[in-house]
Amino acid sequence: MANILRVAACHVSPVFLSASRTTDKTISLIKQAASRKANLVVFPETYIAAFPVWSSVRAPTENHSLFQRMVKESIYADGDEMEAIREAARSNGILVSIGFSEKSRQSNGCLYNSNLTIGAQGEVLVHHRKLVPTFFEKLTWSPGDGHGLRIAATEFGRIGTLICDENTNALARYALIAQAEQVHISTWPAVWPTRTPHKVSQLGGEDQSSTNVDGKRVGQASEWATPPTFVTSKRLISTTR
């Protein structure tokens, strides 16, 4: 890991439930990050096209129309939106990590909470699907698998990614540490308005916020971490009221 790595960790909101407009925003941010000499730009959990925070604040029977919109605005890992993002990575010579709600070509309603790590030549380095959707996320996403528990070997180091609560999964963490991971990307959703920070038994009794989880993760592995967080937009808040 001899080369200097400059990371742009994007704490941003998508264009709510609009895959095309969020893709345009993503490409603009990639260009901005590259212009500021970043080597790696990281986007939050399911940045395209939304995180289903509505499932945490409303009854499932009230969310059918939102799930339909979520399916419509989710994207394929090899679809036009991701092709455009890969081209932006290539043309700007920058590594990209992006979370997205992934459609399946084998099912009309199956979605995955996914993340792509894209190389500076536009190639897909790692395609990861969240192993186990957390709590209410099961109303939206299907379980993933271990195929994506791989590091991306780059000129700036060996980069791994885990999504949200996977960062508290000891075996998932070990799977990346065992591959000599040097840079860890820890993606998170919005901080939802359903609770205040509190002490928990996990992680040594610490508040299970992304900051504390990431801090403990880095201490265990002796590596660098970047935690981009999904920012809740006014449009999302008004929709879930």
From TrEMBL:
InterPro entries on file: C-N_Hydrolase, C-N_Hydrolase_sf, Nitrilases_CHs
KW Hydrolase (keyword) present: yes
GO molecular function annotations of the record: hydrolase activity
Bilayer-crossing regions: none
Pfam families membership: CN_hydrolase (PF00795)
SUPFAM superfamilies reported for this sequence: Carbon-nitrogen hydrolase (SSF56317)
Coiled-coil residues: none
Keywords: Hydrolase
Family (UniProt): Belongs to the carbon-nitrogen hydrolase superfamily. Nitrilase family.
Name the UniProt record assigns to this protein: Carbon-nitrogen hydrolase
Organism per entry: Pyrenophora tritici-repentis
Organismal lineage: Eukaryota, Fungi, Dikarya, Ascomycota, Pezizomycotina
